Amino acid sequence: MTQTPPDLLRQLYQTALAASADRQPHPSRDRSAAALSAATAMASDLGLETIQLETVPDASVAALVRPHADLARATPPGTVIFSSASPQRLRGQDNLARNLSYLLGLGLALDGARDIWALAADTEGLDSGGTAAGALLHPDSLSRALALGLEPGSLLDQGEALHFFASLDDLLPPAPTEARMRDFRAILVL
Fold this sequence. Notes:
The structure is a single chain. By secondary structure, this protein is an alpha+beta fold. 44% of the residues lie in helices and 16% in strands. The chain contains seven helices and six strands. Strands 1-2-6-3-4-5 form a six-stranded mixed beta sheet, sandwiched between helices. α3 (61-74) packs across α4 (98-110) and α4 (98-110) packs across α7 (161-167). The radius of gyration is 15 Å and the shape is globular.
C-alpha cells in the first residue's frame, strides 16, 4: 500500500460521498447502501478484506465503541471494518457531535492499539451542526493529546470531542451537503 492510512481512509470516505451523490433521486437507504458498497469495492480492489457492521440506533457511545474496538483488535491486518449510523444524536451526549464523540470513545476503548486507524464523519455537511464533518483517529491520538495537556476521557464526558480533534489537527472539512446518506465510519487495521 503506497498511501498513508489516513489518506486511504479519506479516499474511502470520498468514494462513499461520490457514490451517494450519484444516487440522489433514490431514498436515503439506497444512497447509504450505494456509498458503503462503493467504499467496500474500493477497499477490495486495494487488496483489503472488509467487514460491514450494523450500528444499533440511539445507543450510548460506550455501547457502540467497545464491541467495535474489540473486533478491531481481533481482526487480522489488512482489513477495513465499515459501519454506518443513523443521523441522530447519541444517547447521553449533550453536544451533537455524534461522530466525533464516537471516534474519541473508540480511541479510548482502543487505548493506543498499534496499527489501527479510524474515520467517522457526517455525510450531510457538518457533524450535527459542528464545524467539521468528522475526524481521523490515529494509533497515537491519545498520546499526542496527553502531550498537549488534554484529558481525553474528560473531554468525552464533557461533550468536547470537537476540541480534542481540533487540537490534534485531525478534523475533516465539511462534506458536500448533497450526499445525504447515513454517517460513514471506517476502522482500518494494518
